[in-house]
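Run log, item B.
One chain of 164 residues. Sequence copied directly from the ordering sheet:
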Amino acid sequence: MFIPRTAIFIRCGDEYLLIKGAPAKRLWAGKYNCLGGHVERGEDVLSAAGRELLEEAGVTADLWLCGTVLVDAGEVGVCLFVVCGDASRVRGEVKASEEGTVEWVKREAVLHLPVVEDLPILLERIHSMKIGDVPFSARSFYDDGGKLRVIFAGTAVERNYGIT
């Protein structure tokens, strides 16, 4: 069983619109993450991502599906729909929400900031993607040693990223 969620990456050149979790958040408080959240009953993935973007950052954008990640989290996992957008198509003014503060962050800065564990992996995968590219498919899990593994399936090569 999987819970459907969206992960939204809005890009402006080499910067991404990220959210720094509010101090009171149960998960990832004080850590940077992409925007996103649950797909509610009656929503399609892109509509859910648009709603989450508006709720968390106060903006709307033209979005497209970049890929999916099945996250093995035990009995109930997450089906993460990775959605991308271009800053030139963002409408409105970026603002904080109860989820946290929203800011543009340079891609290389992500390696030096407190971030959720899979953020650098997903950024690396989507950074060169553009509208019309075939969406990727991946799975994410922790190995027996407690290391996060994200495996991207593809027609040519399967890539395995290990995070220490």
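Observations after the first pass:
- The helical segments are 45-57, 119-126.
- The first helix runs from residue 45 to 57.
Flagged for discussion on Thursday.
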